[in-house]
Amino acid sequence: MSKNTGKGSSRILNDSTNFSDLFNDPLLKEYENWSIEDLKNELEKLEKERDEKKLIFENSKKSHSLRDVIDKENVDDNITMNQSELQDHMIKEMLQDNKEREYEEILKAYRLTGKTIFPVKDDRIGLRFETFHGAKYHEPYYIILNQNQENEQLNVFRHTLPHFIPLDELEATYLNKDMHKFANEIGDYLQAFVTRREEFNTLIEEAGVSEAKSNNAFSDLEFMTTLDVDRR
């Protein structure tokens, strides 16, 4: 359910009684007669320059930090490195750092899709399902799959899914035929459940509902509410 935020927005606008005051600062004076579109373009340009300088600064810090480490190693081990060896060492460190960042970005990207697959010990496979509502992450759910060494068929070993989701049926129908469909079906069930639950909680908190009841799946709801009736 959405809230009416018009009142708050109006209050903010009323507090800004004179926009021209913003340009009394000499640093902003040159922008006084600019159009909104020009200001947006200038802002994007300044943000880009800021990001570029920030990147240069971060790389400079890494370079100095790496040189400190190398210098310490040279003192401790009585090893001297020529310029070429120093560059090789720095490049390896930077590549390793980039690989770690790339791996983290890949994990974030997969998480945004709502489903992640990961290895588990004993040659098992894990599936993680994200749930969302109101632009926020909610609790994740997991399925651990086991593979039969004789026929290479997958089966559900353990899971954290709610009991009312028809996992056995989905496993028999899709798991060894279409893994993508299997994961999507389960993800849809989980997301629908979390959405119903959060909407139910919102109903209680914001709509003045009392004596609300629901089953575990939040698919069957009972509640009471008070209506104002004009008896005239």
Automatic annotation (TrEMBL):
<dbReference type="GO" id="GO:0031511">
    <property type="term" value="C:Mis6-Sim4 complex"/>
</dbReference>
<protein>
    <submittedName>
        <fullName>Cenp-O kinetochore centromere component-domain-containing protein</fullName>
    </submittedName>
</protein>
<dbReference type="InterPro" id="IPR018464">
    <property type="entry name" value="CENP-O"/>
</dbReference>
<feature type="region of interest" description="Disordered">
    <location>
        <begin position="1"/>
        <end position="21"/>
    </location>
</feature>
<keyword id="KW-0539">Nucleus</keyword>
<keyword id="KW-0137">Centromere</keyword>
<keyword id="KW-0175">Coiled coil</keyword>
<keyword id="KW-0158">Chromosome</keyword>
<dbReference type="GO" id="GO:0005634">
    <property type="term" value="C:nucleus"/>
</dbReference>
<feature type="coiled-coil region">
    <location>
        <begin position="29"/>
        <end position="63"/>
    </location>
</feature>
<comment type="similarity">
    <text>Belongs to the CENP-O/MCM21 family.</text>
</comment>
<dbReference type="Pfam" id="PF09496">
    <property type="entry name" value="CENP-O"/>
</dbReference>
